[in-house]
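Internal tracking record. Fields below are filled automatically when a chain is submitted to the structure queue. Please do not edit lines marked as system-generated. If the sequence contains nonstandard residues, flag them in the REMARKS field before resubmitting.
Queue: standard
Priority: normal
Entity type: single polypeptide chain
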Amino acid sequence: FRKKRLRFGRSRIHEWGLFAMEPIAADEMVIEYVGQNIRQVVADMREKRYAQEGIGSSYLFRVDHDTIIDATKCGNLARFINHCCTPNCYAKVITIEAQKKIVIYSKQAIGVNEEITYDYKFPIEDTKIPCLCRTESCRGTLN
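SYSTEM-GENERATED OUTPUT FOLLOWS
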């Protein structure tokens, strides 16, 4: 797979976003979500530490029950992809040489300068995180 040409820039959804620099057809690999593989216990500790350090956003992506990819301090541009209730991409866990990876694929054709988005699919919790996607079918929250 060839990673698509992408750039990060200011987003109308939330601070920074990731944008296509070339047309992307439907069902194509866009980018792998890269970071450090950690266990849940480590992720919980890091999330607290990041909050104490004043890091506004942490980039923790669950792979499975045991593994989380932390792209907060050592990730790639994929960490800038914003949530959208009607996304143009989706995340998929694939296994390559016995290692699980998260890959972002396009759901539809994406034009040059269009923002790359996917549904974060956060679990439902009492404390709601507001959604900022502003699409017609916005659910209002990420969880």
